Amino acid sequence: MLLRQHGFAAKLAEGTPTPTDYPRVGRCWGITAGKSVPVVGRDGLLGAWARYLTTVAVDDSPVAGSLLAYLEATDRDFLLGLGVRRTFGVGEVLLRQGDPTDHALVLMSGWVRVFSSTANGHEILVALRGPGDVVGDQAALHVGPRVSTVQTLEPVVAMQLTSAQLRDSVRTRPNIAFAVIRQLAERLREAENARVDFAALDVAQRVAVFLLRLARQHGVVERDGLTLRMPLSQQDIANRIGASRRTVARSLAVLRERRVVSTHRRRIVIVQPDVLEALARSE
Predict the structure, then answer these.
(1) CA distance 275 to 254
(2) Nearest partner of 219 among 267, 281, 251, 155, judged by Cα
(3) pLDDT digits over 244-269, tens only?
(4) Given CA atoms 52, 55, 58, 59 in this order, what sign does their dihedral have?
(5) What stretches of the chain adopt beta strand conformation (E)?
(6) Is the whole-model pTM more than 0.70?
(7) How crowded is residue 174: how many other Cβ atoms within 10 Å of its Cβ?
(8) Is 49 helix (H, G, I), strand (E, B) or coil?
């Protein structure tokens, strides 16, 4: 069965749950005026987010958990002032797994996918990175070959720093060093959550949890619901949660049928976040 046929999952398979079927959600993150702010909704998350519709805009502000999000303006300007501006088209490879290291990229706009390829040809989506994130920093700081490939999902503008510039900035400016540590801690937590999800949840739940985490960090309030800021394909989701594309497609189909999410070309809108969270928590 696609969904476990007991508890909330059974109700989702049978039809749209009523508000009494799922727990209230106390806190989530939205984006207002370029900042992440907590929004609390007694009558469900979408009702709370809808109150911010007139002030929400999609922009290139640093995403939550990114290096630039942790830096004050002075250190941010210093770091970006060292770099060279680069532009990339859709589908371009910015960094390639196994290549030698001589630079890192600070994303200013646009989204990329970070993935690793196994010896038998499987692709594992490591992360999605957006404005404010640094890619290639681990290899640059450790002076080793690239451990992942970075490919654009949409047009990208980035500032290119040499490995020496990044290392010197970390060595001489404590605020930048602390921001790098905070970004690394966020990424370690991200990886740990993914391992726990893979061991403890079925595919339908892993899809729900993955979408919820993206929504909380990178969701943008729009009239139809909460739109994920980055382009996202079914294969990307499958490669991230350790499932087949076919199984992910079936899970998304059920969510669409129950009007929990709506999907467009590489875009996902979460229409009922509270229902999605209840599915993620179901046993």
Answers:
(1) 13
(2) 267
(3) 999 999 999 999 998 999 988 878 99
(4) negative
(5) 28-32, 35-39, 84-88, 93-95, 103-109, 112-117, 123-129, 134-135, 149-152, 156-162, 219-222, 225-228, 261-264, 267-270
(6) yes
(7) 10
(8) helix
